[in-house]
Amino acid sequence: MKAVRFFGHKDVRVVNDIERPVPKGDEVLLKIGGAGVCHSDLHIIDEGTVVGTVFTLGHENAGWIEEVGENVEGYKKGDAVLVYGPWGCGHCKPCQQSKENYCDHQSEQAYGGGLGLDGGMADYMLVPSSRLLVPIFDLDPVIAAPLTDAALTPYSAIKRSLPKLMPDEYVVVIGVGGLGHVALQILREISGAEIIACDVTEDKLAFAKQLGAAYVINSKDADASEQIQKITGIKKAKVVLDFVGATSTIDLGTKVVSLDGDLTIVGLGGGHYQYSMNGLPFGVSMTNPYWGSRTELMEVVGLARQKKIHIEIEKHKLDDANEVYERMRQGKIKGRAVLIP
To answer: Which end of the chain has the smaller Cβ count within 10 Å, N or C?
Structure first.
């Protein structure tokens, strides 16, 4: 079968000689409908965050069950499903709470398909346990694949702060990319706070307006924080969601977050924050959440089935993987690219 394989630093190849896996036990073989292309892939490819192993890329995956192992119950051939991305041990306390993204044994094992183990940029994908599947019912797997990260990650981050996202408060979203454009839709649907969106290009800011942002600010502007504070007034923003994670965006967040607010850094931009007593307002919680739980993914599927969120996608063939990654490096992907076998 065909697959997009990572062979080492900046070495990604499309190969045609991978043997199709055969599931056993609780394993499930998935016929891939779509595999999302995530910026996190570039951290693996360009920065070597996963070393010493060869594997198939792709951690945002959806498709149809092709074959199941002898111990699988509740699923049959043809069922449309998502693959929950972070694979934990399955038995520690966080895993039992469906929070495999915070598995106690994360440091001891490869962390999921496309993240050290074989992922979904292929004709077929072997999922190690049926517990990692989430039914999508009538959703198209091609459209649904990015829900597993591009929607789940912002959804989980927003839920952390939901009690603070009241109608008399402001929320700032920094970065209207693959995750940020979904965050705007989620905020529009489940929170009452007024939304301020920040990005560095006018087309992304116009896109943010379409998705429900009440205000848009170009974060390249030297006075971006002052512009935001003119909107929020002295109270500032109760929640800041940074989907970039660069030093400049973290600095912007610290300037506009309110007393007792939440500064949530989701993006993996490699930024730094130098703590000082006067650097943050009192009571601020600075967090760096990772992905979301399996039950939250079920809730995301509910939002998508109700047509309350929609991921802007570009469709590409597996053979186009390297071209898509290059366009991603250049910031030319609007929304999410999806590879289709």
So the answer is: N
Would you list the domain boundaries of the chain? 3-148+292-340, 152-287
What band does 52 get if pLDDT is binned at 50, 70 and 90? confident
Report CA 312 to chain centroid distance, whole Å.
14
* DSSP codes of every residue in 156-212: HHHHHTGGG--TTSEEEEE--STTHHHHHHHHHHH--SEEEEEESSHHHHHHHHHTT
Sign of the CA dihedral with 88 first, then 89, 90, and 96 last: negative
Q: Distance (Å, rounded) from C-alpha 252 to C-alpha 205?
A: 17
Kindly report, residue by residue over 92-111, the tens digit of the pLDDT: 999 999 999 999 998 776 67
Which pLDDT value is given to residue 335?
Answer: 80
For the stretch 269-308, pLDDT in tens is 889 998 888 889 999 999 999 999 999 999 999 999 999 9
Question: Phi/psi of residue 183, each to 5°?
Answer: -55, -40
In angstroms, the CA 335 to CA 144 distance is 13
Segment 76-96 mean pLDDT: 96
Decide if 63 contacts 36 (C-beta within 8 A). Answer: no
CA 234 to chain centroid, in Å, comes to: 32
Pairing label, strands 133-135, 124-127: unpaired
Q: How far apart (Å, rounded) are the C-alpha atoms in residues 275 and 161? A: 22
Say which CATH class 152-287 falls into. alpha beta
Cα–Cα distance, 217 to 170 (Å, whole number): 14
Tokens, residue 208: 């943010």
Shortest CA distance to 248 belongs to which of 215, 270, 217?
A: 270
Distance CA 299, CA 88 (A): 20
Which amino acid type is present at position 329? Answer: R
- Fold for 3-148+292-340, please state it: Quinone Oxidoreductase; Chain A, domain 1 (3.90.180)
Residue 93: phi and psi, rounded to 5, are -60, -50
pLDDT of residue 110: 61
